Amino acid sequence: MGVAKKFAVLLCAEDSDYVKKRYGGYYGVFVEMLAEEGETWDFFRVANGEFPDDDEIGGFDGFVITGSCSDAHGNDVWICRLVSLLKKLDSLKKKVLGICFGHQILSRALGGKTGRSTTGWDIGVRTINFSSELFSSLNIPTTLSIIECHQDEVWEHPPNAEVIAWSEKTGVEMFRHGDHMMGIQGHPEYTKDILSHLIDRLTQRCYIEESHGEELKGKLETVQPDKDAWKKLCTSFLKGRL
Fold first, then answer.
1. What is the pLDDT of residues 66-92, one digit of tens each?
2. 149, 177, 189, 234: which is the annotated catalytic residue?
3. Where is each Glutamine amidotransferase domain found (predicted)?
4. Is 187 noted as a catalytic residue in this protein?
5. Which of 12, 100, 149, 234 is catalytic?
6. 78: helix, coil or strand?
7. 122-130, strands of its sheet edge to edge
């Protein structure tokens, strides 16, 4: 028998009460999508300053960076420390999957540029288009629907990275750096109920108008993200099956 693979989720946001109660926190959401039998999964609350020690990093086969309310172009102490960690993981050729904020901070660490989207918030289910045949072996269509919730984006992808997906709203929906690092702007791990509760939080905090929030939730009833395809894509990348 081979050695069991070990992965870690780098948590970049506080758990909402709803996600904590329904899924056991965002860690639980990611484990539900990505974990397979025989694997070990851990987490580090990097937004609270909890990082893996240097001598721990080698024991992990891969890392997942979550979304966040913070700006990937910001200079909070934990964000700068995360950038340094990602540079180290790149040098070690560790598998890294970045989601939303994780996609943006990964781009920054690799030399790309991030910032506010010039076209404002993207909230809802969006169709993205693959510009690469990277996933052809998985029999995944050339377009997939994914849940989005962001107001920042990757402005310029890292110099040695390849843009592998785009949408009408966002030019860099996904990028790949080597065969060990990949960023996804959308949220393959989200369910529609998570997004609906997040829309309520954005409304309560006056990030979006209440009427707009109700409109967004109404649209959610008529569309479905391609969750099974995203699960297949993300697990295949992280476990080196592409």
1. 999 999 999 999 999 999 999 999 999
2. 189
3. 59-192
4. yes
5. 100
6. helix
7. 40-44, 6-10, 62-65, 95-99, 181-184, 174-177, 161-166, 122-130, 143-150
